[in-house]
Amino acid sequence: MKSKYGKRILSFVLCAVLLLAFSACTQGEEGEVAPDGMQFATAAGADYRLYIPTHWSVNVDYGVSGGYYSLGTQSTVSAQKYPITEEMRDAMPGEGASNAKARADWFYEQSLKPLVASLASGGLETVDVNCVAVLLDGVNARQYHVTATIKDVKLQFVHVVGERKDAFYVIALTVADELYVNLKEDFATIRDAFVFSDTPYAPTETMKELPADENTPDGMQAASNSDVAYGFYVPASWRVDRNHSIFAAVAPDGSSSVSVVPYLPHSDEQMSVKDYFDWNRANLKKTSPEGYTDVSEKEITLDGVPAMQYEYTYTVGGRTYCYLQVVAAWRGMFYNLTYTALPENYESNLGDVQRIIEAFDFR
Which residues contact residue 181 at a Cβ distance below 8 angstroms, ignoring those fewer than 6 apart? Predict the structure, then answer.
């Protein structure tokens, strides 16, 4: 099996987490304008604005703010917010201006650097031993820079970490070694243009339309459209996400989300549903060795199609999330229906999740 398969699996698990982070989305400020020569690359709901040069391409499809320079060569930039949990607070240096450097260093060493190291072959090489002190919209921040070889390609990883209002904010550049010199000034421009905002970002146009669906069960609403080979329905009280390319919805209290992500295997990937999830599990454990815990698994059906239901917990960015994931194979593709919740809210929406599973419809 190819290693890029595991990276695709990890991406949809993380995007389920991001749906929760953006669940309190409201309208943004009117008349917002990007700086000259730049464009918005901000995901809906973000309490900041990420701008990238107009000669880059925006990519916010999976709820992550960011974009890329070249489609054919690794060259991506992203911004993410990581709320500080009580567990993180207990483990890191205390608050205060004198500890700002130590707290950023702790977060980078505990949450960001291990993720790069888990994917690298041959270890990491630190480029800036003492890091670099920078400002992130007036907030004292730290810039970290390492190189690593992943799948025989040397990559440069630059992370800018700043702390504000009980959260760490990270701008990350991942770029092939041969492009770094050409793009490092672009990255500096992106970093310097970054601003915080008290108003969550709301795009002026949604990414997808959800027309009326005559097959919608009573008391539910369609959360998918005719572009896909399935019907995905959620309770009428849930908020359907229209801003990202995946089909998803968030519970009324914002504590949980459900999403559907399909995966088309490569022609040389021969696997069963269990093989598929085992590879998912292996990559999650590789990324966070102590952050993954199996809870249960059982055989079920999804619209009459044999499927597996898995429950597990996964810790990312210092925060633990509970998952219920249903995986089925249908007409050459795998479909992942994933429920994500904070531990304290996991049980409260299971009834709705069961309705969602029962209403799911392959076409």
Answer: none
Euclidean distance between CA atoms 79 and 122, whole angstroms: 27
Q: What beta strand segments (E) does 8-131 contain?
A: 38-40, 48-49, 51-53, 57-58, 65-68, 75-83, 121-126
Could you tell me the two tokens for 300? 């079920």
Angle at 175 between CA 173 and CA 178, to 5 degrees: 145
Record the pTM: 0.62
Could you tell me which of 298, 310, 363 has the C-alpha nearest to residue 336?
310
Could you read off the pLDDT of 83-119 as tens digits, one per residue? 888 888 888 888 877 788 889 999 998 888 887 887 7
- Pairing mode, if any, of strands 247-250 and 319-330? unpaired
Q: Are 184 and 174 in contact (CB under 8 A)?
A: no
Strands 195-196 and 247-250: unpaired
Alpha carbon 348 to chain centroid distance?
24
Closest by CA position to 95, among listed 169, 171, 143, 166: 166
Do 234 and 248 touch, CB atoms closer than 8 A?
A: no
